[in-house]
Design goal:
Helix 3 crosses helix 5. It contains 7 helices and 10 strands. By secondary structure, the chain is an alpha+beta fold. The chain has one domain: Cathepsin B, Chain A. The strands form 2 sheets. It has an 8-stranded mixed sheet with strand order 1-2-9-8-7-6-10-5. The chain has a two-stranded parallel ribbon with strand order 3-4.
């Protein structure tokens, strides 16, 4: 099997488990390790309203998306250039607060809205959750409060900083950027937002950007799409929150499937 997906995006294999982070200068994690003896995995408790794509359709759906260049991967790499610069957590343990904003930024691409950079460090700071968390927690924040925008102007929060101010102007601007429809089980805790593999495929083929946690790495990333690496071999394509990693932040995790995931179906259609 090739080491590159489409000749340019690195494929991270199980044999490279210990070395997949090489070359990243300011890498950091931030998912809180979970004690499965206290909080076991829930079985069969998933978003029940999702109309699932049958596995027999995967190849045809994939080939249609490739022919039409209609997936989130294609929208992000239109013209082989990224539609936006990735959010770099820059040493902050806030990966879980970057995966959901990345998903919202991809959702805006799908809606043909202008690029707005959202501030993951601000989300963790506003939640006073400075030592880690889960994608389910940041997605809940985006649903209830909206996303803080990167910047130094009124209603914005400085990039990669804990020193922004929680003002009425900030909250009003955040309210313009809310997760308005998602796959999120309100009956589960933030650390237990599991999706089955068939649900992950369904979200992928429906172009619903996902935030996802990998307990193996104590790390959270945006799951852009499930890709067909070769016939019969599928894997998550992720957008990282580390500058200088992968291909414009993209990489394929072969054999590494997420433990938790939440998906945005729609965010506030604000053109600001």
């Amino acid at each position: 099997m090739a080491d590159m997906y489409k000749g340019k995006i690195p494929i991270i294999k199980r044999s490279l488990d210990e070395g997949w982070l090489r070359g990243v200068g300011s890498m950091s994690f931030g998912c809180i390790p979970r004690d499965f003896s206290v909080d076991p995995v829930a079985m069969g408790d998933s978003p029940s309203a999702m109309k699932l794509v049958d596995p027999s359709e995967y190849d045809a759906r994939w080939e249609e998306d490739e022919a039409n260049e209609s997936s989130l991967e294609h929208l992000f790499l239109r013209g082989d250039k990224p539609a936006f610069e990735l959010l770099d957590q820059d040493g902050f343990p806030d990966c879980w607060a970057h995966s959901s904003p990345h998903a919202m930024m991809l959702d805006r691409l799908k809606q043909h809205l202008p690029v707005v950079r959202f501030n993951g460090v601000a989300i963790a700071t506003l939640l006073k959750q400075l030592n880690g968390g889960w994608c389910g927690l940041s997605m809940k924040f985006l649903r209830e409060n909206g996303a803080p925008e990167v910047g130094t102007g009124p209603g914005q929060w400085p990039y990669q900083s804990r020193h922004g101010k929680d003002t009425p102007e900030l909250r009003a601007n955040m309210a313009l950027h809310k997760d308005t429809s998602d796959w999120y089980d309100l009956g589960k805790q933030e650390y237990n937002q599991t999706l089955t593999q068939q649900q992950l495929y369904t979200c992928s083929f429906e172009n619903w950007a996902m935030a996802a946690d990998w307990n193996r790495f104590s790390h959270s990333m945006c799951l852009v799409r499930i890709v067909r690496v070769e016939k019969g071999v599928w894997a998550p394509l992720v957008l990282q929150s580390w500058k200088g990693w992968g291909y414009y932040g993209l990489g394929v995790l072969l054999d590494f499937w997420p433990d938790n995931a939440v998906a945005i179906r729609s965010s506030t259609p604000s053109a600001t």
